[in-house]
Fold this protein.
Amino acid sequence: MSAPIRLRGVSKSFGATRAVREVTLEIERGELLAVLGPSGCGKTTLLRLIAGFETPDAGCVNIGDEVVAGPGRLVPPEKRRVGMVFQDYALFPHLSVEANVAFGLLRRPRDERETLTQRTLELVGLQHKAASHPQELSGGERQRVALARALAPEPELVLLDEPFSSLDATLRAGLRREVELILREADATALLVTHDQEEALSLADRLAVMREGSIVQVGAPEEVYGRPASRWAAQFVGEVNVLAGVARGGGVETELGRFDLRAPASGTVHVAVRPEQFELTARHDGNAEVVAREFRGHDVLYRLRHEGGRTVLVQLPSLELYEVGARVFVRPASSAVTSLVD
Amino acid sequence: MGLTRRGIDGWAVFTLLAALVVAGPLIALPLSFVTAPGSLSRFSGLVPEALAATAVLVVGVGAGVLVLGTALAALVSFCDFPGRRWIEWALVLPLAMPGYVFTLFALGLEVPGIRSELGAVCVFTLVLYPYVYLLARSAFLAQSRTLLEAARGLGMSHRAAIVRVGIPLARPAILGGVALALMETLADFGTVNLLGVRSFTDAIYRVWFTALDRDAAMQLATLLVSITLALLLLERLARGRARYQQQAARGDVVPPVRLRGLAAAAAVAGPLALVGLVVLAPLAQLAAWSVESIGEGLLAPEFATAARNSVLLAGVSALLVPVVAVLLAYGVRTSRSRLAAGSARVATIGYGLPGSVVAVAVIVPLGWLDRRSGTGLLLTGTVIGLLFAYLVRFLALAWGSVESGLMRIPGTLDEAARGLGADRLDVLARIHVPLIRGGLATATLLVFVEVMKELPATLLLRPTGGDTLAIAVWQATTESLFETAALPALLIVLVGLLPVAAMIRLSGRRGAELTARSGVTADAAPLAGA
């Protein structure tokens, strides 16, 4: 068992733009880590620094026991044992599916090469397309070839750069699950870069939220969602209501009622309340009015105007529906536990 | 372990060095005015003479190709007549006819008045009009019908609309074609020499061989380069803001007008007569002379040697030049540095410069190296010097096809391959070369044919016993041994037909847009960037 992948204080600037600022991050063996951030936050640069396509200005990158980038040391991409799945897949158009997958195995003995190629093609379920050329495949199949090509040399780490962004929205959910299963089956360590929070939350073991070149929070999806480290993180990862209130001990009093706090506090604070942390009841003398309703199938997102004037987002199962214009009474759900934000 | 140090990039350094080696001699040409200031004054009569001849040629050929090329392009683009598809492409064939071969034909037939500046203007116009024709034709075909229809709607006849809207819109392309034809005219040595026109290339030759004065030759070469560059600049200025019109003109193709009766007959007969005169008649005459010379045993004994030399030189260059072009283009791509990109631009300035200029430019540094290394005449006395001159002269030709191919390969392919364990040379061999093999084949063919036809640089740099087919044609023609000159000339023209045929075949598949990628505009691209 070798050491995990480690980044320490990695920075990279392009001219005056500081794309990546002192990022420190560890990826455990067999883990699927997602780097989530808005476009232009530096996440793709981070990926390219790990792959070796960019040189860090400071800091160091370890893969296994080896320093691949650091003061006085720079291992070229071809020696890093890192597989990459590109946004546009970057399949070699002049090679068959099989030759694409075998590309990284050139220096292996022939037997091993063939075994690995076959095994990887089976893993992604494309044995029957081995002789096809990339142009003849569907988008999803191309993606699986790209994944197989990256996995075949059994890399220390697989990097995926927005792997689902060029696919149809309808295909995305299914392929996401498929990719996850393939990665788990291959027992691969993977780092995925995305701007899609739903994708990151559903796919990753851990999440690193990135903003303006820095990583602002790392944790399990439920932790990042439930305990956002900042107002920005709370707003970026899902919908949120940020409420002002007065904390006393284990609770906080807001204009919408009292919420439990994860950690005791006191004084004037802000808390992040997720839309599903409210309860609604229809009442003529309710404290809010339904302004808009977004039906999402299994649940509904309501936009309410509270009597105090503020807008409140509330998400409920679609079992019972409230009409736009209806008076409702909104109050904290009994299980609602909230975190402080800046 | 694979360590690379930050900041020092092997490929960028290689690109810079290659550029210096290739373009260095050309950049150093003007230095001759400093190192040997008075040289040219010994030949004070040559310069005014050459300037006068050049002026006549530029004006005459410019007007000739402008009228002939534009008229023919307009004919096949805006009119329809029986056999138009065939004639459209037959009109390109004169590209395969080197000026000195057509001159040989004309001299052999003793055309009256051919040994004059006017004769040279006629020869150049007949063999060079395809440059204007091709570029004008593709511009016409790219024109939007709505523009011409708007003109018709404003009360113009079809003919008036073509003359007052269609042709002015194609002005940048037409001027580009004229510029190309004029560069060829300035670069030519064979035609002017054989016809007794005392232009710059002829003056360089005489100073070099009869006076053995290299400094004066270099200074003449510098003057010729200046005229060439001035011409390019003039073309740029003349284009001016006209460029945007080309982009604006998009839409349906203009429907051609169907010609009938006498007009149709003339539209068929005119181009056929032209192609017959410039290509078919010389081919037939050369074939007849060849048969005669073989039958009478007049075939020069050196013929086999010359043929072998030509094929060897062309073959080696056709391998060497594209390889250098690929390495250079890949260096620019992989190092991503502005230094490398600038170097590549510099390395490709040799094209469009006359072969005599390139020969004069490379001989000085090579001679210096020979003296320094004490290896005798290793570089200047062997084919190495000549091959180097071909590299300098034709690198841009190969570069054009190679670079446009590389540009179409997305950068992520390089990175994907690197991530899979391929180093930079692997990426080149396993990804790029297979993906640009079409462009490479074009580059190889173009360089092969150009070297086969090349006369002035070969004449100045060939080692003893290194005569080529082109030299054989020129030499026999100067001695009025037309039958002897016929067979090598025939071979040169037949080889020259290969890329023209390839271009025509290619265009059959891809239509009008095609000319943009043909050999001719592969020639044009580096010129435009020079």
